[in-house]
Amino acid sequence: MTAKFDNEFQKEFQTIDAFFEKTSDSAIVLHRWIIKKANQQFATQLNYKANEIENKNFIDFIGPSGIESIEKHYLDQLKGVESSMYRTVFLSKDGKEIPATVSTTIGNIDGERVEMILITKWFTSIFFIIFCGCQLK
Fold first, then answer.
1. Which helix (H) or strand (E) holds 100?
2. Residues of the chain with pLDDT under 70
3. Side-chain half-sphere of 9: how many Cα atoms within 13 Å?
4. How do beta strands 85-91 and 26-31 pair?
């Protein structure tokens, strides 16, 4: 699967499991900000097991340096501005901030409106500081 969603891909799956079968990227599915499912690729990047992340609030895994970008993404959505890709900073189990680029789309899976998120690029801290001008702890 490509790093970015497209309408044809979204039509291919009707269940959360089908979504995860189609991707090799780090991925999560959110329903009302709660992580319904995370694949092991995503969990491993944050030093968790997938079942430790599921049913937790998505914001719990966002580092302090990533809060502003998350707020902007969701505020843009509320304003009707298309916002399907953004950079943010995740927080690992041991408190390390891990920058990433996220691709997201809204869909209906298992009869629920969900947000499907792919982590299209994980960055090293030094890369993120140089190219984004952010300071990480």
1. strand 97-109
2. 1-14, 124-137
3. 16
4. unpaired
Judge whether 76 and 70 are in contact, CB under 8 Å. no
Taking the C-alpha atoms of residue 26 and residue 42, their distance in angstroms, rounded to an integer, is 4
Element spanning 4, H or E: none
Q: pLDDT tens digit string along 19-52? A: 777 788 899 999 999 999 999 999 999 999 999 9
Separation between Cα atoms, residue 109 and residue 87, nearest integer Å: 25
Q: Which of 89, 93, 94 is nearest to 48 (CA)?
A: 93
Q: How far apart are CA 108 and CA 91, in angstroms?
A: 28
Q: Count helices and strands (H / E) in the chain.
A: 6, 5
**Alpha carbon distances (Å) from 77 to 72, 82, 84, 115, 132:** 9, 6, 9, 12, 22
Contact 7, 106 (CB under 8 A): no
Task: Report if pTM > 0.85.
Answer: no
Tally of CB atoms within 10 A around 34: 13
Helix-, strand-, coil-residue percentages of the chain, each rounded to 5: 35, 30, 35
Q: Which amino acid is at 34?
A: I
